[in-house]
Design goal:
CATH superfamily: P-loop containing nucleotide triphosphate hydrolases
Radius of gyration: 18 Å
CATH architecture: 3-Layer(aba) Sandwich
Number of helices: 7
Oligomer: single chain
Helix content: 25-40%
Distance between the termini: 18 Å
CATH topology: Rossmann fold
Shape: globular
Strand order of the largest sheet: 6-7-8-3-9-10
Structural class: alpha/beta
Order of helices and strands: EEEHEEHEHHHEHEHEE
Amino acid sequence: MISLRKVEKYFAHGLTKTYVLRRIDLDIQPGEFISIMGPSGAGKSTLLHILGMHDQSWGGEYYFDEVAVQTLNPKKRADLRNRNIGFVFQSYHLLDDQTVFENLELPLSYRDVSRKERQSMVCDTLDRFQIVGKKDLYPTQLSGGQQQLVGVARAMIANPKLILADEPTGNLHSSQGKEIMEMFKRLNEAGTTIVQVTHSETNAAYGHRIVRLEDGWVVKE
C-alpha cells in the first residue's frame, strides 16, 4: 500500500539545514497495524503528516497504491487523500459550532456524495459506534472519551483504506484510552490499515510491528 524511499524533510536557516527526517525507507502492507515510536522531536508527527499528504515540502519518493505522490499537484494529492485516508488526532479536532451529526457529515461533503446518501451514512455510523443518542450534542457537551470516539467515527465514515492516528489516547483516561485502542484493533481486524504515533508501549503493542525514530532516522523495526 505504502512505499517510502529516501524521504527527507528539513528546514533551511540561511545556508544551514536542520533535518527533521533523514533517508526514510518504509513499506506498509495493506491490513498492517504500525506503531511509530521515539522521543520528542524524533520526527514522528512529521512522518505522519507526510504519509497523510498534508505536508508538501519534502524530498524522496512516496508511493501510495503505486501512485507516485511526489509527482501529484496539490489538488490531485488532496483528492487521493480524501478518498483513502482518515485521521484521528490527540486534540480531537472536532468543530465546536457543529453537532456530532454535522461533524460526521463533514468529510463526506468533500466527496461526490448526495445529501440523502450522506445522511444515511452518518446514521449508519452513529449506530455502528453506538453514539446515536449524542447526534444533536456539540463537542463541548461530550467527555474527552466521547469526543475521541466521534473523532474515530469521523475518520472511518467514508471507509478509508488507511487510518493515521497521532497520539490518539494522549488526552484520555486509561480506561477511555483502552476503549479507543480496542476499537482500532477491531477496525484493523476488519481490514483497515492503521498507522499510529504513540509514546505508550502499551498502545504500541497493539500494532503488528514498531518503527522507532531517533533524530529523524529509523533506528529500529
